[in-house]
Design goal:
Layout (H helix, E strand, L loop, with lengths): L6 H8 L32 H27 L1 H24 L8 H33 L4 H26 L8 H27 L5 H14 L5 H17 L4 H23 L7 H37 L8 H5 L4 H15 L1 H24 L4 H23 L16 H20 L1 H18 L2 E6 L8 E2 L26 E7 L14 E4 L1
Antiparallel strand pairs: 1-2, 1-3, 3-4
Length: 525
């Protein structure tokens, strides 16, 4: 990930974010990302938005007559089918929201993705699917069941995929990662599944039997829903998010984009094949479990990428007093965030838990805004102020409860200047060893130490022994001063158990331009 912070942004940070026109400077994608003009995908200045709205309206006009026809066959079971699948869609949406790691997507943008999946894709598919069926039947001399398993995925998956691409092209939708693409892909697939399943339930329950509706819910919703349209479109959507936001080369991004779409078509076709069709439930499980495992692997891949991106933002972009790398380690997963809140409840009670939850939400929102809009954007300025206020409130709660180093406040202790010098020396030495080699670094250090000892002002502390005989030099016996060009150095070794007698040798640096030989002065005290 490549991140950059300009001088204006640093100045805004130092002045408490009091800038009128901040400029985002985060660049983590190979494709330049337009700044969002709106908070949702509704952007009247975007041609993609109007094109998507027109296609959705056309799909709605095309699909609604089929829905009305299904309702007229048997109104009672038709209404029951509609209510059952609407409740199913709501429950499945809650599951999708639980899959999110850090941020909550805009509800209006989610509704737009649902509308594309429920109306645009099935409406267009009702026209394109018969034509594709005829093409496949003419090209491949196979049975009718196999023709459908090839024709349907070749139409439905690209149509759903186009809705995800449209969201990626609208800046306000903020599709900024593979995880975003997977989420919106699953939402589009959910809309398609609910719409299609309602049609099947209404048609098959034309005999007026409610049991048929519940059987369809069990088969297509509970058993088949775990590896159906949301799964297919989610994998394709992850590729869309990767293509538009990854920093990889064009060949790799195009390969992932086309490969995930081909993967969605393949697994959809595999699920539709007439393999193991003796029992519908057994067939659904046997063919669906491999698809579900593949989807879970893609989900983990997308989540790991998103976690690495947010960790990089916390380390390199967002100031440490707002979200430090240590803070992000406590925000990385839902389980860790819950454990931190439980620890806060034990040590400071419910007020600390409530305030800590607000703080975690504000910090994650700040990272999300930095990822989507860039550091220094109006959203990041507003959220930075919120984080600071909540940190102050939480610190006050911990102080009132007598809690030191309360959970959620990972403030680092001040570092001494000596420790900083040691750290800098260690870092520079490590870099030199990597570039020059250990043997050369050791030889250079030994030469430099010898020059410092022989060319500077050396303060030698001698201690008298108990019987008054020969002094012991703490700086080293037999040191003979000489001349060099490295400057002055001081070596201090004071004894705590004896009165010292200090003898200072002052050596004047020999100037190359001074041809006179000047004696060394000795000052004894």
């Amino acid at each position: 990930m490549t991140v950059a912070r300009d001088d204006a942004t640093n100045a805004a940070t130092a002045s408490g974010f009091a800038t009128a026109d901040p400029t985002p400077t985060v660049a983590i994608a190979a494709i330049p990302r337009a700044l969002p003009r709106t908070r949702t995908f509704v952007d009247v200045r975007s041609l993609v938005f109007w094109a998507g709205a027109a296609v959705t309206l056309y799909g709605l006009v095309t699909w609604m007559p089929l829905v009305i026809a299904g309702m007229r066959i048997q109104p009672a079971t038709g209404v029951l089918s509609g209510l059952v699948w609407l409740m199913y869609g709501l429950a499945f949406m809650l599951v999708l929201y639980r899959m999110e790691l850090f941020d909550r997507r805009s509800p209006l943008t989610v509704l737009g993705a649902l509308a594309w999946g429920a109306f645009a894709a099935p409406g267009l598919a009702s026209i394109a699917a018969p034509a594709m069926h005829d093409v496949v039947a003419a090209a491949l001399p196979i049975d009718e069941a196999w023709v459908s398993s090839f024709a349907a995925p070749l139409v439905e998956e690209p149509l759903k995929w186009l809705g995800i691409v449209a969201l990626a092209l609208i800046p306000g939708a903020r599709l900024r990662s593979a995880a975003d693409g997977l989420f919106y892909g699953a939402v589009v697939g959910l809309g398609f599944q609910v719409s299609e399943s309602f049609m099947y339930s209404a048609i098959l329950s034309s005999d007026g039997t409610a049991a048929t509706v519940w059987a369809m819910l069990l088969l297509r919703g509970v058993i088949g829903g775990l590896w159906n349209h949301p799964t297919f479109s989610g994998m394709a959507g992850a590729g869309v998010g990767y293509f538009f936001n990854a920093s990889a080369g064009p060949w790799r991004r195009w390969g992932v984009l086309v490969g995930t779409l081909a993967l969605a078509v393949t697994v959809h076709g595999f699920f539709n094949t007439p393999i193991v069709n003796a029992n519908a439930f057994v067939s659904s499980i046997v063919k669906g479990v491999p698809v579900l495992l593949l989807f879970l692997w893609v989900l983990r891949w997308a989540h790991l990428r998103e976690r690495r991106t947010f960790a990089g933002l916390a380390a390199d972009v967002v100031p440490d007093d707002l979200v430090s790398p240590a803070d992000f380690r406590l925000l990385a997963t839902r389980r860790i965030r819950q454990e931190v809140r439980r620890e806060a409840a034990k040590r400071a009670g419910k007020p600390a838990v409530r305030t800590l939850k607000y703080l975690q939400g504000a910090q994650l929102a700040l990272l999300t805004a930095t990822h989507e809009d860039g550091w220094g954007s109006p959203r990041t300025l507003e959220l930075s102020a919120d984080v600071r206020l909540i940190q102050t409130d939480l610190r006050a709660i911990y102080d009132a409860a007598g809690v030191v180093n309360g959970p959620g406040l990972t403030e680092q202790p001040p570092v001494s200047s000596r420790r900083l010098r040691v750290q800098r020396w260690a870092e520079s030495t490590r870099d030199r060893i990597e570039t020059e080699g250990a043997r050369r670094v050791v030889r250079t250090a030994a030469t430099g130490a010898t020059e410092k000892v022989t060319t500077g002002a050396i303060r030698i502390v001698r201690r008298r022994s108990a019987d008054g005989f020969g002094p012991h030099s703490a700086a080293g016996d037999g040191v003979s001063p000489g001349a060099g060009d490295t400057g002055e150095a001081a070596v201090d070794n004071a004894a705590e158990d004896a009165a010292p007698v200090t003898e200072t040798l002052t050596l004047r640096r020999v100037d190359d331009r001074d041809q006179r030989d000047e004696p060394t002065g000795r000052d004894k005290s």
